Amino acid sequence: MTVSVTPLAERGPLAGTAVVRDRASARAFVDAHIIPYANDFERAGCIPQELLDRMSAAGLWAPFLPPDAGGAGMSMVTLGELHEEVGRGCSSVRSLLTVHTMLSWALQRWGTPEQRARWAVSLARGEILGAFCLTEPEAGSDAVGITTTAVSSGAGWCLRGTKKWITNGQRAGLFLVFARVGDGPAGSIAAFLVPRAAPGVSVRPIPDILGTRASMLAEVTFDDVRLDSDALLGPSGFAAGMVLTGTLDLGRYSVAAGCTGIIQGCLEACADYTTRRQVGGRPLRDLELIRAKVSDMVTDVRAARLLCAEAGRLKDAGEASTIIATWVAKYFASRAAARHAAEAVQVHGANGCGPDYPVARYYRDAKVMEIIEGSNEIQQVTIASEAYRESRP
Amino acid sequence: MSDQVQEQVREFIGGRYPDAEISESDDIFQLGFINSLFAMELVLFIEKRFGITIPNDELRIDNFRTTRSMAELVERCSPAAVGAKA
Questions:
Q1: Considering the entire predicted model, what is its pTM?
Q2: How confident is the model over A90-121, as pLDDT tens digits?
Q3: Among A222, A219, A197, which Cα is nearest to A207's?
Q4: Which residues on chain B are in Cβ contact (under 8 Å) with A322?
Q5: What is the spatial distance between Cα A159 and Cα A176, in angstroms, rounded to a whole number?
Q6: Beta strand extents in A104-207 (DSSP E only)
């Protein structure tokens, strides 16, 4: 597949938007287009189309795809840095990137040439946004407990079921849906690419959530949705579990990077606030108890960043150990983000509880990070097994 | 070649599950410890160690049941075999 891609940055009203290809350009983009408006996004409960278009112009949606699929062939290490920077600005925006990345990566890894030809360039350009549909009203961490079914029907499939807590479900144009394809246990789950426009797909927004309030969550119902045979993504049978494992691994990596961004955001907010805020005629930053909190933020953000970089390096090298490395990075970063977001609110006092500073948003968002892409408890169960492995890195 | 592949796969499985003792014909799925996480690790390991890409139609459970079947899979997916097929 060879395509000629004209960067959106070269045309239209968004001309002049710098293409994001590394941490520095990502940081500049976030500082200019996300941070000043992030609290407004949260209040509105959505990300404005103008920003989504600008992210397309910057090439932010799927830069890891190869150039002939509309991407930039970006490494996973660099992708993690981008997601960290976006997470520093707004976890809702980062979460849109996460689910879009998951779908785009799954397509690239498991899709047929025909499936990639149909979807990849549109996903790379952000012309179609993706969403990841696994969780159901009665099945979260227990992924094998899903009840959505895909029944072979003629030359295709008939999809039936309801997915809940779907990030960007309100706006996405393409859903990666996991469904049960047989009556057997684990290995009978398969992945499907489902266009939002397919008859039988309905979307119900979920408002007033605790955190990532602008991530446009939705409940998505598939009511006897007829799909062609080429909607099936990747292998069926035993290997279908790998589509889910691999996709969740990348989502976990993105969330870990985003959590690192939350810690960095807390650090920057606290450094700024405690420099300007006076107490007893001296800046707050002179207090030793404040400095202790800030020093812990400095330390943990560096540790989280290194864990993410290591997980990314292992992905780029194709090493099997990237999966556990990613679990470790997400576990550490999400717990540290929740801890430091709480401390950041504490440092800001009453101001930390209001809408004029970012830390209340960080606090709400960080709590969500301890639940999604593997709850802390699931992570503990999984990571503990590493202690009993014979060959350790 | 086949023996070397089998030995390296055995080492990889042994590194993850030190108590597992498997012969070339033992069905690893009968041993009770395989989950989707390990299956993904196994595929990544084989692709990385032997420099191959396993296509979707080769990701069948029978290709991963034994170290022997995995060695045969590596043989089929090796660049020389893929080149000859093309």
A1: 0.92
A2: 999 999 999 999 999 999 999 999 999 999 99
A3: A219
A4: 44
A5: 12
A6: 130-133, 149-153, 156-166, 174-180, 189-195, 201-205
- Measured CA angle at A150 (ends A217, A126), to 5 deg: 40
Assigned token pair, B73: 């899979």
Please answer yes or no on whether B41 and A110 come within 8 Å at the CB atom.
Answer: no
Residue A391 has pLDDT above 80, yes or no: no
Q: Is A288 a catalytic residue?
A: no
**Res A275 pLDDT > 70:** yes
CB pairs under 8 A between A and B: 66
B11 CB neighbour count, 10 Å cutoff: 13
Q: How far from chain centre, in Å, is Cα A211?
A: 14
Contact A325, A392 (CB under 8 A): no
Give the DSSP letter of residue A139.
Answer: B
The residues, any chain, with a CB within 8 Å of residue B40's CB and separated by 6 or more, are A241, A242, A245, A246, A249, A320, A323
Q: Is A16 on the interface with B (CB under 8 A)?
A: no
What b/e readout covers A352-361, taking b as 16+ CB neighbours within 10 angstroms?
A: beeeebbbbb
3-state helix, strand, coil in chain B (%, to 5): 65, 0, 35
CB-neighbour burial class of residue A376 (10 A; exposed 0-12, middle 13-18, buried 19+)? middle
Closest CA relative to residue A275, chosen from A264, A266, A287, A263: A287
Amino acid at A290: I
Q: Taking Cα atoms as reference points, which of A46, A51, A9, A15 lies closest to residue A30?
A: A51
